[in-house]
Design a protein that fits this description.
Elements: H1 2-9, E1 15-20, E2 26-32, E3 41-44
Antiparallel strand pairs: 1-2, 1-3
Length: 64
């Protein structure tokens, strides 16, 4: 029971990823604990719907 409670209360916030096409235009967002895959997904600080269809500002990218 203790292990179950620790899993419930120790959950981390999901990370946010943006999918960029070849020109650097944002095409999709995804929240996940792991990176979705190598195909153009980049971790970002936040998700803004106004970024869809536009290049992301440099300040959007997470520094890790």
């Amino acid at each position: 029971m203790r292990a179950l409670l620790q899993k419930i209360f120790n959950t981390r916030n999901p990370r946010i990823f943006a999918r960029l096409d070849e020109q650097g235009i944002c095409r999709a967002f995804r929240q996940s604990a792991q990176p979705p895959g190598p195909a153009g997904w980049h971790e970002v600080n936040e998700q803004r719907l106004t970024w869809l269809g536009a290049p992301l500002p440099t300040s959007a990218f997470t520094r890790r």
